[in-house]
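re: ur question from yesterday

yeah so i grabbed the chain u mentioned. its 388 aa long if i counted rite. heres the sequnce exactly as i have it in my notes:
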Amino acid sequence: MKRNRYLWFCLWVLSVIGISLKGGAVTYGCFAVLTLIPLLSLLYLLAVYILFHIYQELEQRFVSVNEPVHYRFALVNEYPLQFVGIRARFFSSFSSITDLDDAAEYELKPNTRIEKETRLICKYRGEYEIGIKEIEIQDYFRLFRIRYRNKECIHAVVKPQLVKIDALGGITLSEAVRECRSRKNEPDIISRAYIPGDDSRFINWSQSARTAALMTRNMTGSDHQEIAIITDTFRYSRHQTEFLPAENKILETALALAYYFSRSNICAAEYHLGQRLERLTVEGTWKFEAFYEQISEIRFSSLHTHGILYESALQQKDISDSSMAFLILSLWDAAIDTLLRELEHNGLFVVICLISSNEQDSPDLSGHKNCTLIRISPFEELTKELGV
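ran it thru and got these structure tokens back, copy pasting raw so excuse formatting
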């Protein structure tokens, strides 16, 4: 394009010199044509901007993360004017399109259309625009280029991805559940009469000898075996490029844990801030679809502060009665540290899932003895976490 401008300018200067030195109809004609070319090019671009149309279509409005969906678009020229040098630029931050290059240049003859069909993949959960982001048009002489935003973008509602896992950040989930339950159910020094079906490992043989009857040790800890999944819904930024990856991975982690527990017939419940602290029970796989839809509808907000989460969690007795807790968040602060202390004080073993790819974001857990930390990158697959 620069080359064409330089060439036009050199020809225009030569025509001016020709007028000055010689004059004549041919020289004046060349000068007039060269002077009018930029104006005609701008008028042409204005006409293309007004007359050119784009039609886009997505196979379905509600899609899931990393689920390819059919996407098609059409470039339409319904007028007796040829359109040249047209490029379609796609959204690339949150979605990707296969087999199409936004550097491709299209030419539309009068009363024609160009249709393209491919697949589109959304990277993160949320609501955002996908498809063609901008249009770039050029004139016949390649002197000017105009880029403008597409007025009819596709607004997609993207649901989180459901990932099947048995381990998280180097922690085998079955072992973590078994360990926390053994901590919550240890034999006490107080004994009672043996009942058929009691674990024979806990028979108090010395006391049985004294009383001439089988005696077994009582079990301390709570009989409540439910596991709490606490999901942080605090939005810490106003920029989509910052909060979308983290929020997507938070919900993806919560779903993966819940799906594991439902497959393993382990009682669990998910807690998150909405208008209040919401509680969603994780039941068997036959009801998991309804649970998935509820998790997909979770809304993040800057009003859902960690202070409110702390106060609400303390008022929820089901959390303190749980056998263990998974705390999923993307930001650590004093309120979360206090919440962790309260959970530990109630005897809960806590697994902290910190959604961050920056090792410097790791909190200081030196004062905590009943928890473990897992850092999960918001940009990697859930099965490729950064680890503990």
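noticed a couple things. The radius of gyration is 33 Å. also Residues 2-49 form one domain.
anyway ttyl
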